[in-house]
Amino acid sequence: MSVLSDLTAFSTPGRERRVTVIQGDFAVNGEDGLVLTTVLGSCVAVCLYDPYAMISGMNHFLLAEPLPGHDIDPSALERYGAFAMEQLINGMIKRGATRKSMRAHIYGGASMRGAMGDIGKSNAIFARNFLDCDQIMVVREDVGDAIARRIEMRARSGQIKCSHVPVSNAMKIATFNRDINPIRDGGDVDLF
Fold it and tell me: Which range among 77-81, 130-134, 187-191 shows the weakest confidence by mean pLDDT?
């Protein structure tokens, strides 16, 4: 089995519950009818799927690593790639996945604003290197350029849809996502 990226297969009708993964968050789940979603600019989302455990996970991080020599406030760790990757991988393992059977997709890493440097490129490189060190196979990437992306991932099957979003729409969506509260109902969805 492999992670599916067929956009047409994603349009199956039916009632789906959606969980938005905002900056600094991650979600791990295998519930049928649940879709993990996020919108990215220079941020990166890593999506993991284990076809044997039939669970998926998604994170969303803002920066690859802190600048050398800078002290990090522990409450700010969630912004960084290492924290986001550890949380996601450990969350998958707690649900029965193994590193050997996980498959990864990397999304985002756009070059959105010239004044911000190439944060997106650094984020994408960090994610790739982290997964390589953990020996998790990357089966698909959609990173770079000056475009925003909307990611939707079916938790049970690992199917992923990546849509390119006009930057003006992405800014509106990102503002909306920041203002909503993710679902924290104590059910099968673990959001941190």
Answer: 187-191
